[in-house]
Amino acid sequence: MQLRVTQFGEPVLEDPGKPVREFGPELEGFVRDMIETMYAEEGVGLAAQQVGARRTLFVVDLQLQGSEIDFDYRLDDRRPPPELIFPLACINPEIRETAEEQEALEEGCLSFPGIRAVIARPAFTRLRFQDSQGAWHELYAEGYLARAILHEYDHTQGVLFTKRMDRRTLRDLQPKLKKLKRTTRDWLRSRA
């Protein structure tokens, strides 16, 4: 089932998620719904806060982006084919390590439609997480996969990509951000 994507201005986006404690059919169904929503919105990642849930959980899939996306990874010290790891559900993620070296690339966010900005992020990350059955894994990710993971991890912590923008970019985007926030607040009031 496709879920509604929350928009900038909705409080849940800035709320840190709570750890997932219960694993089972409800969680597996929620993860499937998140993946379906991510695909329907043509995104590469989606965090629980982006569908209105305060959980430390996100999903990622770079397969639909084609071969122009540069990334590398190792899952549990192996490199299985991408079709075996994607879509990837990361539950209770913990960042273990990030590169000091930063790469600046353009990012978008499903909760900020029409807004894109160049964001500097670490070139690699090491992440510990649980899968939807509760088993722990470790993922080393470079390039675009590291970027997607760090973007979605930020969502689980209540950190929006606007917090990662440099001051000039954020200032230049203020008119669009204010309009989006106003539209979201008007929509929320109409539903009350």
Question: Could you characterize the architecture of this molecule?
Answer:
Helix content is 31%, strand content 27%. The longest helix is centred in the C-terminal third of the chain and has 25 residues. The mean pLDDT is 95. The protein contains four helices and eight strands; from the N terminus they run αβββαβββββαα. It is globular, with a radius of gyration of 16 Å. With 192 residues, the chain is α+β, with helices and mostly antiparallel strands. The chain has a six-stranded antiparallel sheet with strand order 1-2-4-7-8-3, sandwiched between helices. A two-stranded antiparallel sheet has the order 5-6. The chain has one domain: Peptide deformylase (Peptide Deformylase), CATH 3.90.45.
